[in-house]
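quick one, 153 residues, struct below
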Amino acid sequence: MSESPDLPPAYLPPQPIYPVVPPPVYPYAYPTPVPVRTPMSGARIADIVATVLVGTLQVALSVIAVFWSFFFPMAWDSCSSSYSGRTCSDGLMVAAYGGVWGGVALAAALALTGVLIGALRGRLMFMWPLLGTLIVVIGTVVGTHLAEAAGGL
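---
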């Protein structure tokens, strides 16, 4: 009983030919190390803080300007009475809303675009929300004067 019975030969998968295909490397080689990023300078940190603060101021002034424009129809109160004799202009009122709302939209687009481009290029960013704040203030003043002129005041 010491003889083994006739068994079919064991299946051996085809062996790769290493001169043609390189053998796999185990363990894998370590990736090249990523260079350490230099820390931000104090001026860059101050620019980011100033950008956030001035941007927050711009958003607050924009909200106030839009709410302020909701009071523009009150300039037409004197037009509704027949004894006042005042003529009111619809075109000037539309221009007043366009001045305020257009100024807010232009300022928001300018500030957002400027900050994104400045951040990507590593340049100063705080000046864009500052310029946007100035545009909001100018648009609101122009719109308010147009609303007063539209109401015949």
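The chain has three helices and no strands.
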